[in-house]
Amino acid sequence: MSRIISYSTADKADVLAFLGSAGNLTADQERRLGIMRERARERQSDLDRQDIDLGLSIPDALEHLVAGHASAKAEYAASAYYHALQHIIDCNASDPYDLGVYSKPSTFFGLVDEELRRLGVDPGLLLHDHLFSGPPAEILFSLPYPVDGPHIGMLPLAKAKPMADAYRGVLDRMNEDFRYDVREVIEKLEFEHTEWEYATKNVDWYTQDTLFFSIMG
After folding, report:
1. Least crowded by CB within 10 Å, which of 40, 42, 90, 108?
2. What does the angle CA 162 – CA 167 – CA 169 come to, to the nearest 5 degrees?
3. What is the DSSP string of the chain?
4. Could you read off the pLDDT of 165-205 as tens digits, one per residue?
């Protein structure tokens, strides 16, 4: 089954503020939480129509995260928690954009990393581990890993330009099987860097620092 990789930008601290907040929220955060709850109910309705039972509803998973735990033991509860976390990210982030559609994204970007490594790109600038990094390490409780997805990844916006520059520098020597997709990645990283650089210098309230990836089936 093909998987869609989309991405958006956010201030990681804004996302973390909801995880374990347990009611300690500002008026604006309460408003955002209301939107998250509505989207969680809508997503659960979609799953119900498809007869998909994760053993934990998305609304309940969201309430667990806000309360500061992810303790449900159902077999697919991890997927419910990641769906809920994605709603938290989405309500604190820019509009999402698509990176692309891939039949086996982990395999594909693993091969891309191997090719970039062969061409001398610094291991710290490879993409796969960012795409599948999981949620922020700063979360103060453990989240189970959803084997079947959805998956969440993160990339510091400060790394977007170094990565794009490194990839562009080897693009003409790259295996042609990867060239189109890597060119698309380069262009998106360059765009996000330009937006981040401009906003950081010219918008006094701007604090976004992280590119969040969402990989959905």
Report:
1. 42
2. 95
3. --EEEEEEEE-HHHHHTTTT-TT---HHHHHHHHHHHHHHHHHHHHHHHTT---SS-HHHHHHHHHHT------TTHHHHHHHHHHHHHHTTBPPPEEEEEESSHHHHHHHHHHHHHHTT--GGG-SHHHHT--S-TT-SS-----TTS-EEEEEEGGGHHHHHHHHHHHGGGS-HHHHHHHHHHHHHHHHHHHHHHHHHHH-TT----EEEEEEE-
4. 999 999 999 999 999 999 999 999 999 999 999 999 999 99
For helices 176-202 and 105-118, what crossing angle results, to 10°? Answer: 90
pLDDT at 217 over 80: no
Residue 70 has pLDDT above 70, yes or no: yes
